Amino acid sequence: MMATINITVNGQQIEREVDESRTLAQFLRNDLGLTGTKIGCEEAECGICTVLVDGVPVDSCVYPVLKAQGKSIKSVEGLAEGETLHPIQSSFIEHGAVQCGYCTPGLMMTATALLNENPDPSEQDIKVALKDTYCRCTGYASVIRAIQSAGRELRGETPLPVNDPAVSEPMHVISRSVPPQEVRAKVTGQAKYTDDITFPGMLYARTLRSRYPHAKILSISTEKAKALPGVQAVLTHADVPGENLHGLVYRDWPVLCDTVVRYMGDAVAIVAADTEDLAAEALKLIEVEYEPLPVVADPQYAHTAEAPVLHPEHPTGNLLKHIKVRHGDIEAGFAQADVIIEREYHTPTTEHAFLEPECAIGVPAGYPDHDKLTVYVGSQIPYQDRNQLGLALGVPEESVRVIGTLIGGGFGGKEDIAGQIHVAMLANATGRPVKMLYTRQESLVFHPKRHATTIRMKTGATRDGKLIAVQAELYGDAGAYASLSDKVLTRATTHATGPYAVPNAKIDCFAMYTNNVPSGAFRGFGVTQSAFAVEQNMDLLAAELGIDPVQFRLINAQKVGVTTATGQLLRESVGLIETIEDAWKDMQAHHNGDGFRWAWRDGHKAYGWGIACAYKNTGLGGGAPDKSEAEIEAFEDGTVEVRTAAADMGQGLAHVVAQCAAEELKLPYEKVRVLLCDTDLTPNGGPTTASRQTFVTGNAARLAAVALRDALTQSAAEMMDVPPQTIRYEEGLLRSNGHQVEMGRLVHWMKSHGLTSRVRHEYYAPKTQPLGSGGDMHFAFSYATQSALVEVDMETGEVHVLKIVSSTDIGRAINPLMLQGQIEGGIVMALGHCLTEAYIIEDGVPWSRLLARYKMPSIKHAPEIVSHLVEHRSEAGPYGAKGVGEIPSINTTPAICNAITNATGVRIYATPVDQDALLLAIKNGQTELHTAWQHVR
């Protein structure tokens, strides 16, 4: 049914015929092309679709467009006045409140409504107003500050100063908080993510997924679906032209299932139709006959002889991999120990909850401006996508182009193939562009999660507080397919002694196939799980020995000269002790000279501090060749462009690359552009994973700029007739002995003489060794200490994290403000892992099928965060930098759990903390809590 709507949008009167079923978000995006309004859930849960209707913020994803009849709508595109940004937009830029940018429009629109009503909001006012508008990147501290600063500007007062972290020795551009690339487009709604892109004649695709977590496929009938008018293609496994498997490490994941399904997210058939509704209708007409098979839902059961074998072709059955660490003599070590603590810990499956659902567009070769099959996708590994596309399509990978779009959050969850191969197959089959956008509910069922683990941790120490032995057994739920379980659980294993000097270690990890959703990369990459066990055992040992927990960590902290459990001698850049001291100073300062207390009571509220340390490798390690390539070109207008296929998910890689180039060429930062992730135009930067991109691609960009500078210098010396060694670079000028030439003019001169102003550099990181071979398994480590102050209501069990103190050794801060944003965002994400988040699966069937059933922290949960940067520089890192993406998420959970124990006397052995069970434990005088809330039936 169609109806006429009269509506004012961003000051423009509009009259249109619309489908009565249309939501306001669909109308803005699809009918008016105002794609600044994003859709994250279509449940009115995440709030990122917020627009103002007659000044009132509404969730436009569920707001019927006809309900807006005669009303005035303001979207993010209507905030600025011409080229002049609204104060909320400029404040979000200034205060570093923009990372991936996908949630930014919703946050700003909600904040605008608040400021219109209350131009002087308190922090509590902001938390109340924005409690239902989520951000997964920032950690909210910068958002709060940006809103308060915008309020001051609207009141005619001076904006708040930027909370720029203290760093040592800022250079020309390095260690300065320049704004991210493309940030203006993100705050004005002009930034284009995959679903914002359309093509004439584009079709819409959907995927039919399994009805069972484990079943034989007896037959698939697509005839009825193909007969539906408007359906252009229906494909099954029989239509896969190449290899019907994909995978990042093991090729075990079917493109389209043929004989068996192994989890509820398995793809069985795909369709392309003229409209999204038709594609959804076609799925209902596909007939699949199944024979249900026994479900393997538990990794420890999977390791028994009774469990059905899920991958008969795998040489070790359900055991994907047995990972081992051996160091010293474990039996002799425990024989020397005066105190031994042995405990079992459990962590759940958790969901990335990136706010942009997966989306891919396939465009066939021969379509206008596309000379080869092209896939548009927000991917963390575009070249690996291209490789897997080529194998599945049965074509040389060079005949496929992957263009990486802006990514609305990833955190490891956009490394595996999602719709890329499917849209390519459908584009080839139909000869038309095809878009496949996952619903939030489909995304929740389909994509790999953080591994659930069971960790048995045994730790021994001598009476003087020296760690002497660590033995651990880990079970990790790999799920139905391997994804990156091999690599993730290797990190959980190799880091299971914590960042401490431990002379004897024996650690075994069993990565097991199950019929649960696959597990893969997730910020922290396995170390998040093992740190939960390590750091609580540290507190238990300290208590048994009668040693203060801070002092106990200082006694055992890794330092230069220590050998890790994998046999690596630490020669440089080990700032752990300084991070512990930073945290300890702030903990003491919190009490204003009244004497530090680990715990105290005030009425029915109990308060406690907890502390935890962590370390995390930078780079792939383990003997994998770790490299990145960058290209840089100078132009006649005095600008340069750096090109590399390394994904920026909002962590700020683009500005790191630009800063490295600007630093070497002594150019203004604004003169450097960055082109990322086009396999036809940008060289391979490798995966955005393992906290590697600043180190590896930063170095590639830096050294490419050095090579370009050398070429420019030689040409300038010839042009000005001066010795090359006398030339210096200053703000786009090359000067020597009273002579000078603008870089752009020099480039023109070079081209006129047949010379190029474009160079490439392929950077290889320092060589590493495989696990078990001794030597350097990694080329750098970042270190961190966090302390948490919690408040526990002893009458309700409710836990509030009041404050997190963080100190992080990142080598060098390339962009301090954005780096601080990474730390704050990682902390709040980990807070959810500790207190609220669990992806619940029952016998292989996901219960967490709605975003409303997955409780990630909102702004109301955000604690005060005090962040310190420690810069123990890595000799090989760009200007000394290491990695920061993962380290902030690793030790937050154990710091909070240690704080809860100090406040209540109850030790937490499973996350997320079940606050009802915590209350029962308190009331019953129990000292241990072994169940988390997902265990309640």
Strand content: 15-25%
CATH topology of the largest domain: Aldehyde Oxidoreductase, domain 4
Mean pLDDT: 97
CATH class wording of the largest domain = Alpha Beta
**Which term fits the overall shape?**
globular
Notable traits:
single chain, 937 residues, alpha+beta, Ubiquitin-like (UB roll), Aldehyde Oxidoreductase, domain 3, Aldehyde Oxidoreductase, domain 4, 4 domains, seven-stranded mixed sheet, five-stranded mixed sheet, 23 helices, 38 strands, globular
What would you note in describing this structure?
The chain has 937 residues and is an alpha+beta fold. Helix 3 packs across helix 5 (141-154), helix 11 (382-393) packs across helix 12 (420-430) and helix 14 (485-494) runs parallel beside helix 15 (527-545). The radius of gyration is 28 Å and the shape is globular.
Secondary structure layout plus pairing:
Elements: E1 2-9, E2 12-19, H1 24-31, E3 50-53, E4 56-59, E5 72-74, H2 87-94, H3 104-117, H4 123-129, H5 141-154, H6 183-188, E6 203-209, E7 215-221, H7 223-227, E8 231-235, E9 245-246, E10 253-254, E11 260-261, E12 267-273, H8 276-285, E13 287-292, H9 299-302, E14 319-327, H10 330-336, E15 339-347, E16 359-363, E17 373-377, H11 382-393, E18 400-404, H12 420-430, E19 434-437, H13 440-446, E20 453-461, E21 467-479, H14 485-494, E22 505-513, H15 527-545, H16 549-556, H17 576-589, E23 599-602, E24 605-617, E25 627-634, E26 640-644, H18 653-665, E27 672-676, H19 693-720, E28 728-730, E29 733-736, E30 739-742, H20 743-752, E31 758-764, E32 781-793, E33 799-809, H21 816-835, E34 841-842, E35 845-846, E36 864-870, H22 892-904, E37 907-908, H23 915-924, E38 928-929
Parallel strand pairs: 1-5, 6-19, 17-18, 21-22, 26-27, 33-36, 37-38
Antiparallel strand pairs: 1-2, 3-4, 3-5, 6-12, 7-11, 7-13, 8-12, 9-10, 14-22, 15-20, 16-17, 16-19, 20-21, 23-24, 24-32, 25-26, 25-31, 28-29, 29-30, 32-33, 34-35
Helix pairs in contact: 2-5, 3-5, 11-12, 14-15, 15-22, 18-19, 19-20, 21-22
